[in-house]
Amino acid sequence: MEHYKMDQSRVSSASEMLNKVPEVTLYFWIIKIMATTVGETAADLLAVRMNMGLTVTSVVMSVLFAVVLVFQLRARRYVPTLYWLTVVLISIVGTLVSDNLVDGFGISLVTTSIAFSIFLAIVFAAWYSVEKTLSIHTIVTSRRERFYWLAILFTFAMGTSVGDLLAESIDLGYLQAAIVFALSIAAVGALYYGLRLNAVFCFWVAYILTRPLGASIGDWLAKPVIADGLGLGTVTTSVMFLAVILAVVLYLTVSKADRIAPSAVE
Known about the structure:
By secondary structure, the chain is mainly α. The chain is 80% helix and 0% strand. The chain is built from ten helices and no strands. Helix 5 (109-131) runs antiparallel to helix 6 (142-169) and helix 6 (142-169) crosses helix 7 (174-195). The longest helix has 28 residues, at 142-169. Keywords: Membrane, Transmembrane, Transmembrane helix. It comes from Labrys miyagiensis.
């Protein structure tokens, strides 16, 4: 019996060490939405404002993301600065993937929105088929983490297309689109807290919706007034949100307020 308890203790310790994602707290959603906003504004800043162009920007940011992702995958536990840097970069890359298809190849936003939705559904189906769970509380193996980041990449690409579709193609407007997505997230929260809908399902639906929400907020803040924006510009918006992200991440690094408890991993 003692040997069994010791083995169980080792398993719990290993699981806690290997879990690679933060707990879903208010801090999580704040950083996530701001990271998606930065993904939208930073991509525009690099490609348009700094005149790097979509192709060069996509190559540079994809290489940088790949390097950071390698460090993230090689890490043995959740590291706030590394994890959220990966999220910010994948947000930028996801935005650029969508923008390249739409602006570079002339594919419609309807087509890219549907295509990314299908790809994301395939990733979730494959992930669940192999692992029998989509819970972020159990990202304790390399295979699960690869599924996790692949799903996130498609949520960002799809969110960019869907956000632009509502705000631009349907001409809803950036602020109005942001309100629609915010109300949709609130509805998901009501279903979870009110009707106790499946937590994993609600998490991923809300996670997906935060991408177009952040993209719409970013465009609304950065675009000129004549284009239905506030006119803050991509530089101001990106720096402002990056500063808040950095401050919250530093707080989490010190406080450890977003660590997943061993019992949750088990």
